[in-house]
Design goal:
Length: about 325
């Protein structure tokens, strides 16, 4: 009888644990679960910022899995509750997962760049507080696309960001932007397709340092097409990133008076000898980066000034 009671008690304890932790992962594993979708800054000003750049990052010590047919949900805080979608009805950000299976494995410390959110076209310059909500699985999805091991709900809700109101928030623009002095230049403003490279440098003439992120590209090269700037030649962010080498922690400090010579752009291999208007857009922060988060991001009109033109012979 005593053995029977112990057996029943063990079963009850097991069922209770399953109820408290339906994912099947033990509490220590769930404690290490850390998957985030992070906007590049916490506050955006429509007159200063053009796009919201978001990154999906798996900081867990094990992989997680994304449904290929899914997206990262966007929510807006209205009337004391979170509602799905942007002011223009966009439900979320799609990620690029070119896998043959029904899911995409986001490996340990992997970063996935998400779609750009145009503050004007998608967010309608609408002031408010927003957040991302993730949809992922702790184990591979089945062939039918179902997930048997969902993360706890609180692990799917991510950092908030704000679109500011011109009426009351523009007085909070970082005063350093008014005296920011960055010298970002190419050797010339016009090149022939017969020339080989476009040299590039950045010098900080400000009275304070700026910060570069070790985990993100130093800059993106962009081309001007249909009256707006796009990533690279075909609006492909992954191929447009311009990297650099630093051996520090998570960021590099560009001190007052310091200059960096950036690897040149090759007119043949990078631009396919294509005539047009181009620029470099640097990703800089006025303060130290917190992993991928910058509280004082340098907007495009200060950092995307190295504009040049390629002309046919």
């Amino acid at each position: 009888m005593k053995i029977r009671l112990l057996l029943i008690l063990s079963v009850l304890i097991f069922l209770s644990a399953c109820k408290d932790n339906p994912s099947g992962f033990d509490s220590d594993q769930l404690k290490d679960l850390d998957v985030i979708a992070l906007a590049n800054k916490t506050q955006f000003l429509p007159d200063y910022d053009k796009d919201i750049r978001a990154t999906l990052f798996n900081a867990s010590p094990f992989p997680v899995y994304l449904n290929k047919s899914g997206f990262i949900k966007i929510q807006r805080f209205i009337d004391d509750e979170w509602t799905d979608g942007t002011p223009t009805g966009v439900k979320g950000l799609w990620y690029d997962a070119n896998e043959t299976d029904s899911f995409y494995e986001l490996s340990v410390e992997e970063k996935q760049q998400l779609e750009l959110l145009s503050i004007e076209k998608i967010m309608a310059n609408k002031p408010g507080t927003y957040r991302f909500v993730l949809d992922y699985c702790l184990v591979p999805y089945s062939e039918a696309g179902t997930c048997s091991e969902k993360p706890p709900v609180e692990e799917t809700i991510n950092y908030q960001f704000r679109i500011a109101s011109a009426r009351d928030d523009y007085s909070n623009v970082d005063s350093r932007l008014r005296i920011l002095d960055l010298d970002i230049t190419t050797a010339d403003s016009v090149y022939d397709v017969s020339e080989k490279i476009v040299p590039l440098r950045i010098r900080n003439n400000s009275t304070f340092p700026v910060y570069l992120n070790e985990h993100l590209p130093l800059s993106y090269f962009e081309s001007y097409k249909n009256d707006h700037w796009i990533f690279g030649l075909n609006d492909d962010e992954a191929s447009a990133g311009w990297s650099y080498r630093i051996e520090t922690k998570d960021y590099y400090v560009l001190e007052q008076g310091e200059e960096i010579i950036v690897r040149p752009l090759n007119i043949d291999s990078h631009l396919n000898n294509r005539p047009g208007k181009y620029r470099f857009n640097f990703k800089l922060c006025l303060d130290e980066w917190d992993d991928l988060l910058c509280e004082a991001y340098v907007p495009d009109q200060f950092s995307a000034v190295a504009t040049f033109e390629i002309k046919s012979e």
